[in-house]
Amino acid sequence: MTLGKLPILILIVLVFLVSFNLLFWDKASAAVNLQILDYPHKVKIEVPFTVTASVSGLPADQSFKYKVGLANADSSWYGYGEIKNGDNWIGYNDADSCNLAPEVKTNAQGHWEGEAEAKVRLGAKTGTAQLRFRVCDPSKSSDSYEINLLEADKPLDPESETTSEQSEETEKPADAASEETAETAVEIKSNSIVEEETVTNQPAAPLVLPSKTVKEPDYKLPATLSAIEANLHKEAATESSQASMANSTNNNNSNHQAVTKYVIISGIVTLLVIAIIIFLVKKRL
After folding, report:
1. What's the CA angle centered on 54, arms 64 and 257, to 5 degrees?
2. Which domain holds residue 117?
3. Does some domain include residue 174?
4. Do the Cβ atoms of 153 and 140 come closer than 8 Å?
């Protein structure tokens, strides 16, 4: 092998090192895990709602920006989602949205969990939609979560309309019966006056002391089923957070192992290249 072929050999080695480097960082980015822990399953268009999300697998104390996207069921365009930053609403696909999005920082384990205020932009269709949480740098998105969109003036619970109609129908017969109740009350009152005059002529009844009553224990139960559901959601969010933190620790360990392996392999390849170059030069001399 002559020195004329030496640049070709060096070029091949450099291409190998660059390819290996890109492959390593792709795997490191794949270790980042994003989840939506809690969100309302029914929301109104243009009405803010809260999303609880978590991010793990990033370096410790790293700042990053995030946003919330929303797409109709028949589309992959998530531009109907908006995130609040201060007094401003930032659209998912707005120009320079990543620079304007809220910024937070991971903890010592490379984990973050918090709440984000989001809303659905006008133009979205009512019905089933897809919700996602996205980190700008590194560019990574969570899985899509199903959510139902309602019109702004429509109640979140369809049963409330039926309940209001039933209450109006119930009030109508009550008004009709009020007149009969008033007439009956007059008759009862006149009868009570006659009975009262009769009772005053009778001797007074002996005094009877009130009997001591035993207070029954007060059993407190949840006021509504919604309270039970809220508790279950809270417990589920806590378990999910703990599991996410455990995954974060495992991801950090795997990242450290990958970095160590990458450094060792790169060092070996570099030494081999240097040895080959020295051997070729000596052979040429």
Report:
1. 75
2. 33-157
3. no
4. no
pTM of the model: 0.51
Is residue 117 a part of any domain in this protein? yes
State pLDDT tens for residues 97-149.
999 999 999 999 999 999 999 999 999 999 999 999 999 987 899 999 999 99
Q: Domain with 105 in it: what CATH number?
A: 2.60.40.10
Core vs surface per residue 130-163: b (16+ CB within 10 A) or e:
bbbbbbeeeebebebbebebbeeeeeeeeeeeee
Please tell me the distance from the alpha carbon of residue 269 to that of residue 255, in angstroms, as a whole number. 21
- Percent above pLDDT 90 for the chain: 40
What is the number of structural domains in the chain? 1
Question: Cβ neighbours of residue 219 under 8 Å, at least 6 residues apart?
Answer: none
Note whether residue 183 is domain-resident.
no
Residue 6 has pLDDT above 90, yes or no: no
**CB 68, CB 132: distance < 8 Å:** yes
